[in-house]
Write a structure and sequence with these properties.
Layout: E1 2-7, H1 14-31, E2 37-45, E3 48-56, E4 62-69, H2 72-100, E5 107-115, E6 133-144, H3 146-156, E7 160-165, E8 171-176, E9 182-185
Parallel strand pairs: 1-2, 6-7
Antiparallel strand pairs: 2-3, 3-4, 5-6, 7-8, 8-9
Helix pairs in contact: 1-2, 2-3
Keywords: Cytoplasm, Translation regulation
GO biological process, one term: negative regulation of translational elongation
Protein name: Ribosome hibernation promoting factor
Length: about 190
Amino acid sequence: MRYQITGKQLDIGEALQTHVKQELGVVMEKYSQRPTDATVVFSKSAHEYVCEATVHLSSGFEAAAKAHATEIYAAFDACAEKMDKQLRRYKRRLKDHKRERTDPVDLLGASSYILATDSDSEESEPDTLQPIIVAEMQTKIPSLSVGEAVMQMELAGAPVLVFRNEKKDGVNVVYRRDDGNIGWIEPS
């Protein structure tokens, strides 16, 4: 497995990198047979350390976890525990997915934009309806079934997932509703 372990304005020592590789390797060995990529980012928020981990599974899915703690090692251990819990929860479905799907998930290229918000103009009317683009990035839209999309959204810890429906070949959206249920938008 390839690891990318970084710190945002933090010095990440060799001991922490070794700890991350060993512990995350143990977690991934339980649930994924083929090598994968892992990105672990440490940062500091006030008095707490934050650890964000994203693992790209060989099936094309992504699992993500985030944890906070006052110690950097404790933040990673909590993050690894969340990742373990997510993968354990979806282990059966991930294995069934591998049996059904012979090829990895197809990914469709797309552009993603970050738009500026006018915090000053909450009370006043905007001058124009044209948004200001702050950043532009490339992203990938996976081609999945609805069940796989819900599983991917849960694994990534995302509130929403845009995907291409394999059965209807159209762009669909699944999202977590305020009542805790999952919503699915399928254009007609």
